[in-house]
User: Fold Sialidase domain-containing protein from Extremus antarcticus.
Amino acid sequence: MIGLFMALGLLAISPCTANARIHERNSVLPSLSGTPVDMTSSQGGTYPRANFLSDGTLLGAYATTVEDNKQLVLVKSSDSGETWSLLGTAATRPTNASDLDNSYPLQLPGGRVLLAYRNHDKDPVSGDYTAFRIDISYSDNNGATWAYLSTPASMPGGPDFTPGIWEPFLRNAKDGSLQLYYSKENSQDDQDTIERISSNGGADWGDELTISGQDLTSRDGMTGVAQIDGKQLIAVFESRQGGTFQIDSITSADDGTTWGNRQIVYLPTGTGNNAGAPQVVDVGGTLCVSFMTDEDTQLHDWVNGAGAKLITSGDGGATWGRKIEVFSPQTVWPGVVALDDTSFLYMADKNGAKSQKIVLS
Assistant:
């Protein structure tokens, strides 16, 4: 309920809003630092994501279209995102027969780098999906070259609407295992967040664990996960329960084995507006959630009219506030990565993949 009051910005005096105001006074203030940086060497690109390698290099990934092919491109930065250079390509497929996107890079503790992504097949004539896959590729030279590793999840396609799988997210668990999160459709109105675990670096995967949406008819998806204060995890995701999209969260006290405590993170302002595609990062004890919303343009044609915003929490996700706009409309698919205890990079598709440094003070 506290998250609901914070999201709507209600001014009435109540215990909830009083607690929210305490959080506002105690939380840090996010602000933009410098100007947006093109991650793509002017080649365009969408759905940017990045993580640090052990040598201090930032490894970024995004999807782009080159002539008649969709590509997953890797870039690197040696100066914490001030500049980016092209590194290589992890996958290339024809645009008329495939849907290649949602790439997410992560280095394993042993040094191997993984890239999770959606790799769907389409009928070149009808455009129908004929197969859905979440694939994993690996690189043993910090992202310069790539090879196929595994397919943790797959589903058959068909004519008209067929439930699919989307938006993988990788995380190294405390026990040395690898966690994969993704979205799984059950119907046009119902989608769950799934977790799978690998104990051998992504080569083989355990059974599905549904961590959100199992007891609701809701479209839960685009999940991001962060560790809170070294003790528990928080997962954020978009959710639509018969109306428009909002941002929700769940938490885990056992490093992802079990999940619960579903809460509202953000409700868009106005009527009939959406907030979606969130990601979350812990920056020196402050949780920062990126998301996109059409609450300012009110086009009611999601995802058209979306801009990219940010909210923070200084109390582990109990309350949220300090909303700022990072990229104006039209901007989609934001992501985040921490730089240090006081700053992070906010990445999004704003006429191509861009990164913007955010400072907490």
